[in-house]
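User: Hey, quick favor. My workstation is busy. Could you predict this chain's structure for me?
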Amino acid sequence: MDDRGGSFVAVRRISHGLDRGSACHSTSDVGAGSAAWLGKGLSCVCAPSKGADARPSFDLTPLQEGCLLKLQSRIDVVYDSSNPDHQDALRALWNAAFPGEELKGLVSEKWKEMGWQGKDPSSDFSEFVELFDRGGGFISLENLLFFARNFPICFQDLLHKQEGDRVMWEYPFAVAGVNITFMLIQMLDLEAVKPRSLVGATFLKILSENESAFDLLYCITFKLLDHRWLQMRASYMDFNAVMKSTRRQLERELLLDDIIRLEDLPSYSLLAR
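Assistant: No problem, here it is.
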C-alpha cells in the first residue's frame, strides 16, 4: 500500500488518446493507475484508490489552456513505423546515441545496447502503450531526442552509465526513459481537462512561459532518477522504488515557494550541458 492509499500489485509482463488540439506561447509515488514497465521483468501496477476522482480542479487562463491542449495533442500521437517523420526521428535518436555508426534500416541488434527490449524499438512503443493504456508513445521518442540534443554529455553519461559505482544489473536506459515520460504525464495530470493537483497547476504556469517545459522536466527527471539510483545503490528489481522516490522529490521541488522556472528546481543543477 502506498502513502496515498493506492495498492501495488506485482505482475509479470503484460502483453488512446485524447481529442485535443491548439496553440501555445513560445518562449511519490507512482500513483493510482500507473505502472513501471521493465519489459520482460516485473511490472508494478497500481490500483486506483477509492475516491481518486474526488479531487479539486484548478481554473486555467486561456494561455494555459492552449498550452495544455497543445501538449495533450503531442501525447496523443501514436508511434507509426510507416510514418517517414517517425522513421527520421528514430534515425536521429540512433545518430545521437551511436555517432559515427551507420544504421542500415531501422532494425538492428545494437538497439538493445541502448536499453530497448529487441532489435526494433517500434515494437516496444506498441507494447508500452498497451500496458499503460494511455497516450500514443511518440512523445517518449521526442523526449529522448530533446535530451540527446540539448544535454548531449549527460545523455551519453546516462546511456553508458559512466558515473558512479554501478551494479551488475542496471536499469535499461531506453525503457527507463519511456517510463519517465508516462510517469510525468500522470504526475502532472495531463490527461485531465484542467489540473486536479497543485503540482499540475504549478507546471502549467511554467508551461505557459516555456513550451519546451515538459521536455526539459523530462531531462531533469531522468538525471534525478539516475542520481537517486546511485544514492540508493539500486539494482534492476529496485526500479519501482527509485521511480517512486524520484516522483516524490519532483513534487516537493515543484511546490517550493521560489520556483518560477524549471531552471529554479534544485535538481536542475544535476544536468550538465
